[in-house]
Specification:
This protein is an all-alpha fold. It has helices at 3-18, 40-45, 54-63, 67-76, 89-105, 111-120, 123-131, 144-157, 164-175. It is globular, with a radius of gyration of 18 Å. The protein starts with a helix and ends with a helix.
Length: 177
């Protein structure tokens, strides 16, 4: 899992907690993480393109009004680059956010359940899902290392399909342990 994917997953998880449904408010055609008026926070807390204070209001709403604190937290959650990163990283952040938003919008796709089961290596459940057997309940026993490996694989797969922000919750939980 890349650090950018991890940071963006943390940001998506925070937004899920603080502003459920946030991903529905983002215009992917306008999204540019370098633009303080069209980045994720600007689109959620601003009044549209041209509102150059929108990012600052969004960061303050999530992280408080102290600028140094805002910058570190914003970077740790994928809203801006870290102090030691090149501005070219904004393009990577924009693409990562677009993948997260698309995946979250597609989370209701029934194939997402199949993918989670495939990642778990639970072939019986995958077969049961394929045949429509609704009584199947997957059971998986994982060690800590297995769980970290699973989350890493899921995060790598998530940009193409699945519920990215739910995986981010697991990543955040593991990071706090």
């Amino acid at each position: 899992m890349t650090t950018i994917a991890y940071r963006v997953a943390r940001g998506a998880t925070l937004l899920d907690q603080e502003r459920p449904g946030w991903y529905k408010e983002i215009d992917l055609d306008l999204l540019d993480m370098e633009g303080g008026d069209v980045c994720v926070l600007a689109q959620l807390f601003g009044e549209g393109p041209g509102d150059h204070e929108a990012y600052v209001r969004g960061a303050a709403a999530l992280f408080g009004s102290e600028v140094g604190h805002q910058h570190a937290d914003s970077a740790a959650h994928g809203f801006i680059t870290k102090a030691d990163e090149s501005y070219t990283v904004y393009g990577d952040l924009t693409e990562a956010w677009k993948r997260v938003i698309r995946a979250t919008r597609n989370a209701d796709d029934p194939l997402a359940d199949w993918e989670r089961e495939l990642l778990d290596g639970n072939a019986e459940t995958v077969a049961a899902l394929a045949t429509g057997d609704a009584d199947v309940k997957p059971t998986v026993s994982l060690t800590h290392d297995d769980l970290v490996n699973l989350v890493t694989r899921a995060m790598d797969a998530a940009p193409t399909r699945g519920a990215y922000s739910e995986i981010g919750l697991v990543v955040t939980f593991l990071a706090e342990r």
